[in-house]
Design brief:
The protein has 205 residues and is of the alpha/beta class. It has one domain: 3-Layer(aba) Sandwich (Rossmann fold), CATH 3.40.50. It contains 8 helices and 5 strands; from the N terminus they run βαβααβααβααβα. The longest helix has 25 residues. The chain is globular. The model has no long low-confidence stretch (mean pLDDT 90).
């Protein structure tokens, strides 16, 4: 059971600024008196650590094996972190979720619709999904200074396919945002839209 909390997801390709915006949103919500938690995927659990280890070795896993690892990590993250926080009525801000799996593994040839159905059998559906949109070249330029490069996921041609899938998501929960804008302006828009949903949920409880 997902509980009375609010689930907000921040998505996008590598270098879009997801972590910066997710952590900033949690700080701003807490400053306004809301109980807010930050989580990320891959998680810090057993399966998340395995994903990060495998991601440093090109060709170490098939797309199907990658998907299996992400599903295991997500189940664990839902059980240990997301579901308990939502049951407590918290605002949960998640840095990547199953939409990343749809986009990244879908770009490797797996069926995006099937991936989505597999995840939505157990993963709580979010109230808001911000898609930070940026071109692969610009995104990779932002993260070029990182000590380690994720050889599985940080390739320009591949990320073009990933971005195309991200841009295909439609629905009331999805909010596309131009990630080339000033990060403070992006943060202000994310906070404003998040507060609308959070306050509406509280008013209806």
């Amino acid at each position: 059971m997902r509980g009375p909390g609010v689930l907000i997801v921040i998505e996008g390709i590598d270098g879009a600024g997801k972590s910066t915006q997710a952590k900033g949103l949690v700080r701003r919500l807490r400053a306004r008196g809301f109980a807010a938690s930050y989580f990320c995927e891959p998680s810090r659990g057993r399966w998340g650590r395995e994903i990060k280890r495998q991601a440093k070795v090109a060709g170490s896993l098939t797309p199907e094996q990658e998907l299996d690892l992400f599903l295991k990590d997500r189940r664990d993250n839902v059980e240990r972190n997301l579901a308990p926080a939502l049951r407590r009525g918290e605002v949960v801000v998640l840095d990547r979720y199953y939409f990343s799996t749809i986009a990244y593994q879908g770009a490797k040839g797996l069926d995006p619709g099937k991936i989505r159905r597999m995840n939505e059998k157990f993963a709580p559906r979010p109230d808001l999904v911000f898609i930070l949109d940026i071109g692969p070249d610009a995104g990779l330029a932002r993260i070029s200074g990182r000590k380690t490069q994720d050889v599985l996921f940080e390739r320009t041609g591949y990320l073009r396919k990933v971005r195309k899938i991200f841009r295909s998501f439609r629905g009331r929960a999805f909010v596309p945002i131009d990630a080339r804008r000033d990060r403070r302006a992006i943060a202000a828009e994310i906070l404003e839209r998040s507060l609308r949903v959070v306050n509406s949920r509280l008013a209806n409880q």
